[in-house]
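During the practical work, I worked with a single protein chain and the tokens that describe its fold, as given directly below.
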Amino acid sequence: MDFLNWDPEHKIKVRIVSARAYHSLFMHNMCIRPTPEELENFGTPDFTIYNAGQFPCNRYTHYMTSSTSIDLNLARREMVILGTQYAGEMKKGLFSVMHYLMPKRQILSLHSGCNMGKDGDVALFFGLSGTGKTTLSTDHNRYLIGDDEHCWSENGVSNIEGGCYAKCIDLVREKEPDIWNAIKFGTVLENVVFDEHTREVDYTDKSVTENTRAAYPIEYIPNAKIPCVGPHPKNVILLACDAFGVLPPVSKLNLAQTMYHFISGYTALVAGTEEGVKEPQATFSACFGAAFIMLHPTKYAAMLAKKMQKHGATAWLVNTGWSGGSYGTGNRIKLPYTRKIIDAIHSGSLLEANYTKTEVFGLDIPTEVEGVPSEILDPMNSWSDKQAYKDTLLKLAGLFRKNFDVFVNYKIGKDNTLTEEILAAGPNF
């Protein structure tokens, strides 16, 4: 028996019935653990998971394509897992449920990291894998509200979970001391390889998968804010690792642009292809979590914009990828520079900067950020081949437009004005 959502007014009661103790411990770490009194008066759960682990489903059932099935029934408020021992299915399933239940209460469910400064200023971090979401939201000068799943209600922000699910491939104490120290008795390690005699873990071993993980209660992190709630966000940071190298290191977004880039959920992966051709691959995931959303992406984007407008939040698009050229010719933007940009966002100093507008995407970029070389702030300046820059910029703009085609037919807002507004905020060429 556990809870989801630290906001006491909107918490959800969940019950986990599993064939394996490992699955129960995993969810005990990842959900919010009840006190003995709360357990005593728990009552009927709002949602129940039945996890049969490796017990397979019947492959001869109509439409069944494998011996694995994950079924979610919103009417019965149940989830049944058959034929897989991947514990993350439970976490993902409940997150999907929250994406359905919370918007019904006018609460926005978010796939994001969240932290808070000493003065109570809250920042949300959105970003797909490899964009630096975990690295940039983990900040020793700020309190961690949560690393992955949040709600934004009329009370402010709250973490949905009671634990963290950290990647631990190549983990070293010097680089990530908080995660290293959180791996202690009670923490669940997934897919790691260890010496059976000494029980020593080899974090560099990728023989099972590169996606090795640690699941631990959030209170194992020293600067976690318990309870995991905070006031309304002041900044919303959208992270993209742009391997094409044409997005600026930082730009300030207006509300329509925020909705456009939130719905797009862009990042680019570097694909190692034949004959050493390393052409970046654009990836788009609506609302930075397409796998979890239950309603149309525009609904979540409109809710985000409404809440930002009401509480005076500013959105930023931060590129943690390449500068001075695409992958192969340019260089990855140095992490210390990105940290300086994030610091300037938190402190509010970036709001005071002078801005210029870029062509095609129409992004507002600052002319200077303390501690960051000014020449990299406008991507065009850092490319020696200006024609190649323009060609690549148009190529990326075309990929954005093609991805957005699927959302164009969806009508939202009075007289369809919102759809028009969001479309107009996209690249113009």
In short: The radius of gyration is 22 Å.
